[in-house]
């Protein structure tokens, strides 16, 4: 069944449809592509172009997204392969859980840093410790070396830098830090990413549950068929 055909069967059997969709590369490629896009935007737009320095928790979040990229790419190699699909799920869920954990901490630090009570600002280091002691900050310092302070993500423009009109407008827009809508301080970066990772968790969980249900259905049908084929 093709991917487009799967959509037409969604109403009759949504569980089977969602399970069948995972046998195609598109869902896994989308997971990898969206995760990679988030990292590229954070680095190339906000860090490089708008001079927002990444903090320790920020580079951990990038690592979490890269775990999801890896999981999506592995599963997309052969989506019908159970082992590769399991690898995709493991790295996808692990990246999401880590991303939620890092952003919960970052949101707490952000709240403390911008309140009258500074308690909780601790925990932001210039020497990150990645899972499995991966020295990503030494291998790829441009992407994984924290140079900013947790909770303070406003642009820090180097002296003598000449900004374009668009850069000037956007750095002024984000002068008080990264918010979904800076003029009202509506949803800081950590809160937005909590929503993003939360949505990813819902979609991946639904997909995994539907896949497991389908596997159990097939196993049940196979067992029933064997019983009916046994001679009396």
UniProtKB/TrEMBL annotation:
It is a multi-pass membrane protein. It is found in: Cell inner membrane. The chain crosses the membrane at residues 28-52, 59-77, 83-100, 192-214. Keywords: Cell inner membrane, Cell membrane, Disulfide bond, Electron transport, Membrane, Oxidoreductase, Redox-active center, Transmembrane, Transmembrane helix, Transport. Pfam families: DsbB. It comes from the Bacteria. Interacts with DsbL. PANTHER family: DISULFIDE BOND FORMATION PROTEIN B (PTHR36570), PROTEIN-DISULFIDE OXIDOREDUCTASE DSBI (PTHR36570:SF1). Belongs to the DsbB family. DsbI subfamily. Required for disulfide bond formation in some proteins. Part of a redox system composed of DsbI and DsbL that mediates formation of an essential disulfide bond in AssT. This is Putative protein-disulfide oxidoreductase DsbI. The gene is dsbI.
